Amino acid sequence: MRLTKTAIDTLACPPGKRDILVFDDDLPGFGIRVTTSGHRTFIFQYQLGGRGGTRRRMVLGRYGEITPSQARAAAEVARGDVRKGGDPARAKAETDAAAKAEKIATRRRADAEALTFGALIEDWARVALVDRSASHRHEAPRRAAAVYAKVRDCPANTLDGGELQRITDAMVTSAPISARRALSYARAAFSWALRRGYVSGNPFLRVVIDRREVSRDRVLADAELGEIMRAARRLPYPFGPFVLVLLLTLQRRGEVAGMAWSEIAPDRATWTIPSRRAKNRRAQIVHLAPAVRELLAGLPRVAGRPLVFGATRARRRASKDAPAPEGPRSIGDFSGVKQKLFAQITVERAQRPEPADGWPPFDWRLHDFRRAGVSAMARLGVGHHVADRILNHVHGAGAIRGVAAVYQRHEFLAEREAALRTWADHLASTAESPVRTPNVVRLRRR
User: Fold this and answer.
1) Closest residue by Cα to residue 392 from 243, 282, 302
2) What does R_g of the chain's alpha carbons equal in angstroms?
């Protein structure tokens, strides 16, 4: 038959067969394949080298996607190629393969352009940091994105090592610790993406920081602790109570900010930090001194708000395109909390007769509270092994090291409770009255 639309519409595969081939009477080699499912596909069949040669078959297209006349024209072109000694099936396969490769390459280029540095950091934090502590999941992507904000919207595969080095060098000058942490996080994120084939290289491997990291040695004097206590008492909820609990318990700021009512014992005698929130993934029991219990008893507790310090409504800064949203949030702006303390302390200092230049500078951080507490406990007779347990230092990283750290698993709970009571009494005494011109104490490393 001649393969026309009318003829093709009447074709059907006989029962018991998977398919049939029907060839055109006018154009040798031009045919159509009909399957049991009703699919019809135009083909062209030929032999390389004439009679006795290798039989080849090429697909011209599916009926419905191309018309019979279009298929016939394609078969005539292919037949002409065969007469000239060509192999149209092979040529078509090569063309199709090249088109497929180009399509894949185009898609990969589009994916590479869509994966910006900011998107990569977000993917890394969402997938790779899922088992890390809450504070690390928050801090690592935030710091990496902040330090390298200039390249946030740049495709990850196009980042230039020289540009990243200039950004890092500029940050090292003003904030060496932030620069070092951000570089470490960004390098880890790209290594994670490289292992998964998302990027072709890790440009952060070539970025270096020449300055040696120096451990902080700032120890707050008792007069400074008194200033902070008095200032915190004047700050409203949640900022003032947050600072007071931070000082009285000596736990990490992220752990205190995330304190939940469900973590506190019914009698408010202890607070259990779950392992998922602890920095070292080790649950911590914190004994609450009477001053902390009294403070917690006076804090508002609203249904549906699980966090002790998370019941505020704060307006975030509005952008040009969208108004500032409102909603509950927990304390996360620790720099803002510190600035509120500085403002209160500045007001107090201005009312004193002593010259302002005689007072220590505001160069301390919230994390320095832990060092100040341990140093004061040492003066008050608290053993360093007890202080280590209060700070929840991992085994082998604190005062008990080596073999002793492996076998020493006593938690010194009674001693820790007594030590935190002693520390709370000491803080109360420092807050009684201002002390004239304190000296800044610094630890000397041996």
Assistant:
1) 282
2) 36
CB 181 within 8 A of CB 168: no
Enter the CATH code of domain 117-206: 1.10.150
Residue 423 burial by CB count (10 A; 0-12/13-18/19+): exposed, middle or buried? buried
**Is the confidence at residue 314, as pLDDT, over 50?**
no
Residue 83 has which token pair?
Answer: 């007469």
Q: Which CATH architecture has domain 225-442?
A: Orthogonal Bundle (1.10)
Tokens 């590479």 correspond to 112
Kindly indicate the confidence band of residue 434, based on its pLDDT and cuts at 50, 70 and 90: low
Question: pLDDT tens for residues 151-173?
Answer: 999 999 999 999 999 999 999 88
State whether residue 178 is helix, strand or coil.
Answer: helix
Strand order from edge to edge, sheet including 19-23: 19-23, 30-35, 40-47, 55-62
pTM: 0.57
Hey, what CATH class is 5-102 in? alpha beta
Q: 84-93 — which CB contacts under 8 Å span 24+ positions?
A: 87/48, 87/56, 88/44, 88/46, 88/58, 89/46, 89/56, 89/57, 89/58, 90/56, 92/58, 92/59
